[in-house]
Specification:
InterPro entries: MFS, MFS_dom, MFS_trans_sf. Keywords: Membrane, Transmembrane, Transmembrane helix. This is MFS transporter. By secondary structure, the protein is mainly α. The protein folds into two domains: 192 residues, Growth Hormone, Chain: A (Up-down Bundle), CATH 1.20.1250; 173 residues, Up-down Bundle (Growth Hormone, Chain: A). Helix 3 runs antiparallel to helix 16. The longest helix is centred in the middle third of the chain and has 31 residues. It starts with 9 loop residues before the first helix and ends with a helix. The relative contact order is 0.15.
Length: 386
């Protein structure tokens, strides 16, 4: 039975979609950290090959994202999200039964299709179809829930790996998609009526200025680059800055809670601000954290992690709320897909680029991401509220 009266049942919609998003992220983005090494070892490969396949999956998701967004604009998000669960399950099954590296790469490519159709961009577009410009709160709500994807995903992947093996772990995630995420997405309202109505009734004015679109695409690409670079290399960076291994790991563990705490803040106090104002604050957090780390070295590891995590948590929400606030709900899904396509491509290259900088420059590599963060902040100040 579909969830009726979405305004009255907002909590149920957020719970269903947030839980399905948690599965989507845990069973794709967070798999390589646990399964890449045994996956590669079974084929006699270096883990670099598996991470390369995962980077390819992110490029595939960038290519398919605009199409998925446009389909959500046309037919609503429920069907696209349900299809993504089936695609995820097929990709994970291919990984599980892969007899050769070629099939393994094919499996990751199919997982990339699922990522382009079923992660945040598609979820945000679905909520825009259900709630129109009032989707900011629900968008924040699902990111609050899915912010625990790594907290759930890494231990569960590790448990399945230790109990059965990496192939069975992939099959386990495929079954979770089919038995949990798919039914939850099936409960969602379709939402296409709000998108269709907004195309004619919502006073959005002329098409968005091309400069504004390019600036926002740059902001998304820059912040995704920093987020992915830190996710891959934060412990090494903190150790290069003078922190011990134990402190570096403990500081890294604070990023998740800092992200969730910042999203709670966005849901409460910052919701009174325009999304552009909160995005400017969030984008400046990483450069400020870099100044702290450079000035104080290892003792600032915890402050760096908290500031970076908090900024990243709010910026994840901004990727959904900013285009909605600036340009409206009409054409939102397709626009979001195009705006995030460069980010996905740059995200795939971020670990390699920052890893090379860290190897060459040591702790001074932080100025690469700090500079990128400053450019993103500047771009946000060039955008105007609507």
């Amino acid at each position: 039975m579909l969830l009726r009266l979405p305004q009255a049942r907002r909590g149920a919609v957020v719970a269903c979609l947030g839980t399905a998003q948690t599965v989507g992220w845990a069973a794709s983005y967070y798999i390589p950290a646990v399964l890449a090494a045994p996956m590669a070892a079974s084929f006699g490969l270096s883990p670099v090959w598996v991470f390369g396949a995962f980077s390819m999956a992110m490029v595939v998701s960038a290519v398919i994202g605009p199409w998925a967004g446009a389909r959500i604009d046309q037919i609503g998000g429920r069907g696209v999200l349900m299809l993504s669960n089936l695609v995820f399950a097929c990709g994970l099954t291919l990984l599980a039964v892969a007899p050769s590296p070629a099939v393994l790469f094919l499996g990751w490519a199919v997982v990339g299709l699922g990522m382009g159709m079923g992660l945040y961009e598609a979820a945000f577009a679905t909520l825009a179809g259900i709630y129109g410009r009032a989707a900011r709160g629900p968008i924040t709500g699902i990111t609050l829930i899915a912010g625990f994807a790594s907290t759930v995903g890494w231990p569960l992947s590790g448990l399945m790996l230790a109990t059965w093996g990496w192939r069975e772990a992939c099959l386990g995630w495929a079954l979770i998609h089919l038995c949990l995420a798919l039914p939850l997405n099936a409960l969602l309202p379709n939402g296409v009526e709000r998108i269709t109505a907004s195309a004619t009734a919502e006073p959005d004015g002329p098409p968005p200025p091309r400069l504004a679109l390019w600036l926002l695409a740059f902001v998304f690409a820059a912040t995704w680059f920093n987020s992915t670079a830190m996710a891959a290399h934060l412990p090494g960076l903190l150790q290069a800055a003078g922190a011990s291994t134990a402190v570096a790991i403990a500081a890294g563990a604070l990023i998740g809670p800092a992200q969730v705490a910042a999203r709670v803040l966005e849901f409460g106090l910052l919701r009174r601000l325009h999304p552009l104002a909160s995005a400017r604050l969030a984008a400046s957090a990483h450069p400020v954290a870099a100044v702290c780390l450079t000035a104080f070295g290892g003792p600032a590891a915890y402050a760096f992690a908290v500031l970076h995590g908090a900024g990243n948590g709010i910026l994840t929400i901004a990727k959904g709320t900013l285009p909605l606030a600036l340009f409206g709900a009409a054409g939102y899904g397709a626009r979001l897909g195009w705006l995030n396509a460069p980010a996905r491509v740059l995200q795939a290259a971020a670990p390699l680029i920052f890893g090379a900088a860290l190897a060459s420059w040591g702790a001074s590599a932080i100025w690469l991401t700090a500079g990128v963060g400053l450019l993103a902040t500047g771009a946000l100040f060039l955008l105007r509220q609507s």
